[in-house]
């Protein structure tokens, strides 16, 4: 009995050779081409468990010789593929393949953060680029209500949100935990749950970005599922370039008020993006930070030390006690 009878997909695997990376081509097994290639069009889409999608062109040299070509080398470099790694391709439909990658020891790799790929179509966990706007009148503005008595008022920022395909991302994320195996029930649950949360979260985010002003530098972060499921939070690239230059590898402190602090690591990914990790989960649990909440991180830098005061805008509390009203 074939696995296709369970998940309506068909798999093939490839052991990566250095030659395929250097030449920028990967040959598809002839047996797969013979049985399943009919109807597959150019380009194909390769989708990873981190929900990034890559378009790759293929070429056919004879009846059953098909190679991935343009786009394959970039895809391999993004994953840092090397000789003897093991890659599994699962054909879904409409020229889409789900892809999982194993290292030389047979363990599935940790995929790059989806926010860090400029090539990926989908989302990303820092789905917000930050532009600081100087506002001479901010010091004279009336202090708005804050969810924390120790919170300060913040400088006005402009946030540009990559909202396109957001709901599609959340639905796909649920499917990713099932190893890409289709489930109509899961798809319906994902769709119904993400619509309302995303809509409310965007409204709350708009309130925060429009009402807050402060003399200190800060960034605003919408809490996506990645920040709930993993012990990390991605800092917007533009903010990092300006304020965290040469700070990689250092420890930082995050807190809501000075009575309780958490140590976190400032890590720089291989794609030159800073994250807060190794302590973010503890902070999140203690302060009940949930998916859809909006957080403001206010930067304090004193003699080489870094700390962030965090103001949490709870999506749940916004229902009963709206902020700024």
From TrEMBL:
MF term (GO), any: DNA binding
Database matches in Gene3D superfamilies: DNA-binding pseudobarrel domain
InterPro entries listed in its UniProt record: B3_DNA-bd (IPR003340), DNA-bd_pseudobarrel_sf (IPR015300), Plant_B3_domain (IPR050655)
Cellular compartment(s): Nucleus
Entry keyword Secreted: no
Keywords: DNA-binding, Nucleus, Transcription, Transcription regulation
The organism's place on the tree of life at top rank: Eukaryota
Annotated protein name in UniProt: B3 domain-containing protein LOC_Os12g40080-like isoform X1
Organism annotation: Cicer arietinum
């Amino acid at each position: 009995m074939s696995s296709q009878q369970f998940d309506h997909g068909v798999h093939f695997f490839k052991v990566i050779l250095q030659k395929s990376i250097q030449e920028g081509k990967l040959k598809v097994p002839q047996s797969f081409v013979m049985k399943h290639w009919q109807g597959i069009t150019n380009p194909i889409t390769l989708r990873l468990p981190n929900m990034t999608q890559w378009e790759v062109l293929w070429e056919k040299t004879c009846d059953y010789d098909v190679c991935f070509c343009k786009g394959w080398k970039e895809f391999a470099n993004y994953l840092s593929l090397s000789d003897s790694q093991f890659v599994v391709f699962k054909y879904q439909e409409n020229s889409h393949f789900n892809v999982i990658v194993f290292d030389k020891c047979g363990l599935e790799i940790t995929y790059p953060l989806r926010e860090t790929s400029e090539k990926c179509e989908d989302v990303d966990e820092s789905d917000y680029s930050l532009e600081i706007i100087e506002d001479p009148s901010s010091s004279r503005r009336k202090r708005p209500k804050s969810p924390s008595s120790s919170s300060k008022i913040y400088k006005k920022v402009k946030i540009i949100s990559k909202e396109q395909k957001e709901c599609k991302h959340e639905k796909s994320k649920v499917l990713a935990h099932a190893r890409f195996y289709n489930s109509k029930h899961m798809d319906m649950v994902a769709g119904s749950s993400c619509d309302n949360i995303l809509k409310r979260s965007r409204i709350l985010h708009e309130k925060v970005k429009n009402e807050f002003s402060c003399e200190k530098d800060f960034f605003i972060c919408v809490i996506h599922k990645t920040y709930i499921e993993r012990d990390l939070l991605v800092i917007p690239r533009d903010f990092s370039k300006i304020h965290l230059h040469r700070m990689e590898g250092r420890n930082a402190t995050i807190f809501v008020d000075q009575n309780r602090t958490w140590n976190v690591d400032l890590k720089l990914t291989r794609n030159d993006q800073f994250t807060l990790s190794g302590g973010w989960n503890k902070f999140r649990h203690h302060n009940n930070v949930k998916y859809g909440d909006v957080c403001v991180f206010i930067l304090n830098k004193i003699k080489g030390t870094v700390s962030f005061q965090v103001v949490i805008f709870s999506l749940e509390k916004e229902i009963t006690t709206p902020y700024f009203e």
